[in-house]
C-alpha cells in the first residue's frame, strides 16, 4: 500500500515498512505518525511514501516462510526500511529471527548496528548517578558476522536420544573487525565526548577476539584525537551500572553488543526506549531502522506499548535520509513529552501508545 502522493513535493522518500509481530505494528504506526506530521508541515520540502509488507509470523503460517523468495529484491527498491519486531509463539524464535530480520541484515550487508542509549528528563533511572551525571551512550554492534555468522550444524542424531551434537562457530574476519571499529571511531568524533571502548572476551576466546583486540589497537592509533580503552564483557556489564559516566561509544561483536544495549536501555528506564539502525554505511543497499525491543507478546494488542524506541528509530532514519533537523526535532519532542510527565506504563506512567504519540506530535510544533 502506498500513500501520500503529491507531485509538488521536492524530496520524496520510498520507505519499506515491515511492522512484523506483536507490538511491532503498534509502535511502527507511532513512528510513521511522527514522520508524517513533520512531512505535512514541511511545506512540500519532503514526504514519505510508505509501502507496507505483511511479512512475519502470520505470513509464515500461510506461506511456510517469513518473507517471500524475492523479498530482498523488493526491499532494494526503497530508500530505507522501517521495521517493527519479529517473534511469535507459532514460530520457533530461531526460525523467525533468521527468516526475516537476520536475512535482511545479512542479505543487504547492513554491517553496522548503532544503538543510542539516552537518558530522558522525567524518567527515573535505577542508576542513582543518572540523576546528576549526563549519560549518553552509543552501542555500535558488529552486525554481519561474529557469533551470528550462522556457521555450524547439528549431527549424529542417529546415535539416538541424548546423542546429538551441535557445533556453532563464531566468525571474525580482519575486514569485518576493522570496518566496524573504524566506524565506531568516526561516530566518536561526532560526539561531545570522543571516546571508544572496545568490548571482547579475548581471555577466553583466544582466536577471534584476540584478532579483534589487535585490530582495535591498530585502528585506535589512527585516531589520536579519540580516547580509547578495552574491557572484557563481564567487567563491562558491571561498568555500565557502576561507572556509566566513563562511557561514550561502546563497540562490540554481534552478541556482546546485543546484550549490552539491552542492559543500557534498561538502565535508561525501559527496553521500550531504545532505538536502533542497521546500516550499510556505503549506502549500496537500504538501511533498516527498528526499536531494540522485541514483539513483547505479554502486552501486544493492548495499545500500551511504549512507542519511544520506534519513534527515535524513525528519527535515525530521517537523519540517514539527510533530514538532520527532523531527527533533532523528533528527539527534542520526545524529551519535552517525558519532561511534561506524559509517560507510558513501562516508565511508571499511565499514558497509552496513542497518547504518547500524540504528545510527541504536539511537541514537534514547539
Ligand atoms: P527479542 O528476543 O526479540 O528481543 P524478547 O521476548 O526477549 O524479544 P521483548 O519482546 O523485547 O523481549 O520483551 C521483553 C520485556 O520488555 C517484556 O516484558 C515486554 O513487555 C517489555 N517490552 C518490550 N518492548 C516494550 C515496549 N515497547 N513497551 C513496553 N514494554 C516493552
Could you walk me through the main structural features you see in this protein, from its secondary elements to its overall organization?
The two termini are 32 Å apart. This protein folds into two domains: 1-115 and 274-366, Isopropylmalate Dehydrogenase; 125-268, Isopropylmalate Dehydrogenase, CATH 3.40.718.10. The protein has helices at 24-40, 57-63, 71-76, 93-107, 174-189, 208-220, 233-242, 254-268, 308-320, 324-339, 353-364, and strands at residues 11-20, 46-52, 80-85, 112-118, 136-142, 146-155, 165-171, 195-200, 227-232, 249-252, 275-279, 287-291. The chain is of the alpha/beta class and 366 residues long. 38% of the residues lie in helices and 22% in strands. It is globular. Helix 1 links the parallel strand 1 and strand 2. The structure holds adenosine-5'-triphosphate. The site of adenosine-5'-triphosphate has 15 residues, from loops. Residues 23, 27, 87, 271-272, 293-296, 298-299, 305-306, 309, 346 line the site of adenosine-5'-triphosphate.
Distinctive features:
single chain, 366 residues, alpha/beta, Isopropylmalate Dehydrogenase, 2 domains, ten-stranded mixed sheet, two-stranded antiparallel sheet, 38% helix, binds adenosine-5'-triphosphate
Amino acid at each position: 500500500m502506498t500513500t501520500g502522493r503529491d507531485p509538488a513535493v521536492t524530496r520524496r522518500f520510498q520507505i519499506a515498512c515491515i511492522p512484523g509481530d506483536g507490538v511491532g505494528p503498534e509502535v511502527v504506526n507511532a513512528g510513521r505518525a511522527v514522520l508524517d506530521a513533520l512531512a505535512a508541515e514541511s511545506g512540500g520540502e519532503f514526504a514519505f511514501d510508505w509501502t507496507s509488507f505483511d511479512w512475519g509470523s502470520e505470513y509464515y503460517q500461510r506461506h511456510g516462510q517469513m518473507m517471500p523468495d524475492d523479498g530482498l529484491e523488493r526491499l532494494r527498491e526503497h530508500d530505507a526500511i522501517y521495521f517493527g519486531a519479529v517473534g511469535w509463539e507459532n514460530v520457533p524464535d530461531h526460525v523467525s529471527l533468521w527468516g526475516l530480520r537476520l536475512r535482511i541484515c545479512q542479505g543487504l550487508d547492513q554491517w553496522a548496528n548503532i544503538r543510542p542509549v539516552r537518558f530522558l528528563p522525567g524518567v527515573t533511572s535505577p542508576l542513582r548517578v543518572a540523576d546528576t551525571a549526563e549519560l549518553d551512550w552509543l552501542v555500535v554492534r558488529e552486525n554481519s558476522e561474529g557469533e551470528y555468522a550462522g556457521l555450524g550444524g547439528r549431527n549424529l542424531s542417529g546415535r539416538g536420544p541424548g546423542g546429538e551434537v551441535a557445533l556453532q562457530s563464531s566468525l571474525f574476519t580482519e575486514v569485518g573487525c576493522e570496518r566496524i571499529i573504524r566506524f565506531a571511531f568516526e561516530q566518536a568524533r561526532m560526539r561531545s565526548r570522543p571516546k571508544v571502548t572496545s568490548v571482547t572476551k579475548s581471555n577466553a576466546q583466544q582466536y577471534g577476539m584476540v584478532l579483534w583486540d589487535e585490530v582495535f589497537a591498530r585502528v585506535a592509533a589512527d585516531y589520536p584525537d579519540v580516547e580509547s580503552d578495552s574491557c572484557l564483557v563481564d567487567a563491562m556489564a558491571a561498568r555500565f551500572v557502576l561507572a556509566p559516566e566513563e562511557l561514550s561509544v561502546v563497540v562490540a561483536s554481534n552478541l556482546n553488543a546485543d546484550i549490552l544495549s539491552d542492559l543500557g536501555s534498561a538502565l535508561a528506564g525501559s527496553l521500550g526506549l531504545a532505538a536502533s539502525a542497521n546500516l550499510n554505511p556505503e549506502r549500496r543497499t537500504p538501511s533498516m531502522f527498528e526499536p531494540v525491543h522485541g514483539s513483547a507478546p505479554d502486552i501486544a494488542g493492548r495499545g500500551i506499548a511504549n512507542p519511544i524506541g520506534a519513534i527515535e528509530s524513525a528519527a535515525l532514519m530521517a537523519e540517514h535520509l539527510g533530514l538532520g533537523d527532523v531527527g533533532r526535532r523528533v528527539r527534542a519532542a520526545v524529551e519535552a513529552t517525558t519532561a511534561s510527565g506524559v509517560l507510558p506504563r513501562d516508565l511508571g506512567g499511565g499514558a497509552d501508545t496513542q497518547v504518547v504519540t500524540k504528545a510527541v506530535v504536539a511537541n514537534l510544533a514547539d
